[in-house]
Fold these 2 entries.
Entry 1:
Amino acid sequence: MSTPPSPSGAERTGGSSVRIGALVPLTRPGWVEAGRHLLAGLELAVDDINDDGGILGKPLELVVRDTAADPERAAAAVDELASLGVVALAGEYHSVVARAVAARADALGLPFLCSSAVLDALTEQPTPWVARLAPAQSHGWRIYADHLLDAGHRRIAVATQPSVYWASGTRILRDHLVARGATVVELDMSALAPTAVCDALVDQRATALLLLVGHPDPAVSIVKAVRGDQRLTEMLIGAPAGQPEFSEWAALLGEDGAAIPFLRYLPECLSPLGTRVEAALRARLARAPSFVAFEGYDTVTVLADVLRRHGADRTSTAAAWPLVAVEGTRGEIRFSRTPGISVRQWAWAPVQVVDRDPADLDRFRVLHFG
């Protein structure tokens, strides 16, 4: 049910370290590349904290568990980590998994700082135990919808699969777009083949297709089908969930993966801290870090500040969420109670709509900033 900790977090006994549990998707069907970037950020921050003296004279230790995008496996990992004496939980990329983690953490009274999942309803009821860095889905996806409207799109198709996350995204987009005069058509990918999607786009006279589906399948197959259909040469393909952010996307699709706008959570310009962290992450990953890696770094930075200032115990950590004022890689991080959000929320991390440049697939173009 669990994987050994990473080398930077060799487990110790006898209270010789301050432990944080890290939950990341490292095996399929989890989004493995996203998990690796998240873990790289978490680990780099732990190394930096320990180079600066650790926590209250003790080294900070990361105890890593692989969620594999499985909510039940993640909930079991929370129980295990709680028994190992971690003072807090960090991480997770997949929203449905983060929701399971948040529910179990709330039940156990274990602080959880969610790094990257965006689903608004991270918990069923407001809880003092959970806080989040990533912008809520309703915030980021409305910015994405505004970009579509600014670009002149009024007939928009959404290719989707059954999931709480995709259903939430579809609802946010529909509510925001329809209220501004656009039409949104939902294409159920559990019933349609990629070629049938092309026919539906023609029939509906859509000008944009949004991919609210899993990666690599069926997202990659849909892109290939649309790009190969001569009737759809002017069709905009979009991926608000961020599938094109990672190198696997470019490797699988090549030029077909360019000019597909997606959301990422980075500022227009990195601060000196962000610039230093970017260089260190690039060295670790042997490629440009995604925004997910920065989210990992910021997560540990916030937790370390809380533990140093308020004590390395669970109750003090959760009680300190409203007091956080920490300079992260992407701006000053503070948590607040945000209407419609059940957890303490950083409102907001910077939001960009970007795509891969057709002239250089390793280069990202910023199309919209919110």
Entry 2:
Amino acid sequence: MFNETYELSNGVVIPKLGLGTWLLNDEQAEQAVCDAISIGYRHIDTAQAYANEVSVSKGIRSCGVNRKELFITTKVAAEAKSYDAATQSINESLAKLGLDYIDLLIIHSPQPWSEFREGNRYFNENKEVWKAMEDAYKAGKVKSIGLSNFLQDDVENILSNCEIKPMVNQILAHVSNTPFKLIQFCQKNDILVEAYSPIAHGAILDHAEVKAIAVKYGVSVAQLSLRYDIQLGLVVIPKTANPDHMRNNAELDFVISVEDMKTLKQIEAIQNYGEHSFFPVFGENNKVN
């Protein structure tokens, strides 16, 4: 799995499988990055909002793998909604990561988290942020730029006003909550879709129908969920600090049949993400078709 990649619209190559670091504290993040890279991962995803960029940097520096072999993603803070604020965010991430460049930089959300999916769409502000992203790209500070949590009209707002098109849109996408129309729109516009929480932040693991299909293939529900997203043409970035889970998440050498993919696409929408339901990205307003 580690050798499988996609090519972004600007020719940059991105691994299909990455390691997510959301909710990992400093100690966990550093060790997880070291463990993942030793196992074979080359794609690491972090964000300013995760408050662990410095620890991710420590893991990168101590892993023993050449920087050029790694693909590092971080995200401009959702609250940075001006050209200057975005520029400051980018420079802070570069400093915290201790890198000369970032492989993929994305806007974490079209709105500040306190206003996620509410009335103010921040269309004009996001144009400013995107301009700062384009300038960072031109300056060589980042190798590719993209979006996260952007709905179709949010993406259209950028497409209609940009000099450089977004290369990625990172969204919530998993069995029982797959925004097919948004995925199709992005793919039609040469925007690669990345799936965060591809295992539904664990909420899908006890789903009886999904478990039955996983048993059929002799794999775990987590492996089935990751393979499902990959067969939709998505990058997957499961978060874990457990080396055994990292290994299992990379063992995806099987193919889900057309019939079973159809069944998985029609699984009833998940209603509850358990203790993590309070996060804006798991709220009712982030369930899109």
